[in-house]
What we know:
This protein is mainly alpha-helical. It has helices at about 5-15, 20-25, 30-40, 50-60, 60-65, 90-110, 130-140, 155-160, 195-210, 220-230, 235-245, 250-260, 265-270, 280-290, 310-320, 325-330, and strands at about 80-85, 165, 175-180, 185-190.
Amino acid sequence: xxxxxxxxxxxxxxxxxxxxxxxxxxxxxxxxxxxxxxxxxxxxxxxxxxxxxxxxxxxxxxxxxxxxxxxxxxxxxxxxxxxxxxxxxxxxxxxxxxxxxxxxxxxxxxxxxxxxxxxxxxxxxxxxxxxxxxxxxxxxxxxxxxxxxxxxxxxxxxxxxxxxxxxxxxxxxxxxxxxxxxxxxxxxxxxxxxxxxxxxxxxxxxxxxxxxxxxxxxxxxxxxxxxxxxxxxxxxxxxxxxxxxxxxxxxxxxxxxxxxxxxxxxxxxxxxxxxxxxxxxxxxxxxxxxxxxxxxxxxxxxxxxxxxxxxxxxxxxxxxxxxxxxxxxxxxxxxxxxxxxxxxxxxxxxxxxxxx
Length: 356
């Protein structure tokens, strides 16, 4: 087995620790130069005691730190991320590391457990093979989704094998991330965003997983946006509503509550469909700015919060089989059951998985 220091480096970064922090936590048993070599895979920790010290300082197990020796590729440095251009590289790199951490914990947790998702997320080899709108229609048909607004989008994603994590990013400049390396795609959403924005971000990240898994695209963000709007508001259904009902603020708020997306997303949909012109679009955003609704639209509280439940249901099923929280934490490579949002879910969760 070959030591893979990527996991150590990634986990340290996700924990918000510097190399100096980790050296100090080990009471000088290692130097920063040695730690740097561990993280660069140039040297393996000299003893099990040092490895245990590193794991304890990061809240993980030694099995977790050694995961890269047996599973490849465990680490990806290129997660899809919906973020503002003003986000510093340090911030999004830390968040990217956290996404990798979730994926490694999940991979360890389900190791040896046979889980068959109800649906699958299709992945096209080349985004030019199919237009984003056609890809969205394809996924809806493949999943046999009913007509109308998508109810419980997170539930649909989990039924297709995606691991969804909602957590506080510590900033509102990043909305979400996704990554697909190996069999388990992971989607992370910022809890700071309102429910309507999280739904659009989740659909946007699904678009990345479908369209940009293998081949990069210079227009990836625009393609993911086009996928998301068609997925959440199919043209054949939303166009008649936008054409006959008008685009007044009252009408937009009604549609927002019904379709679970922001007024801005609905108006942009109308604009892209040729149902609103540039002058109307400009006046719409002037009105939003005047009312201070650009960042905080009204009626977002009327859109149901969607919570991930799949991981929690798996945990409940394992508990029902007699495992303890400590056992499950160990399986996931954690020293504390409450050390990851991946394992913790809504309090009203009930087991839906039966392990045989």
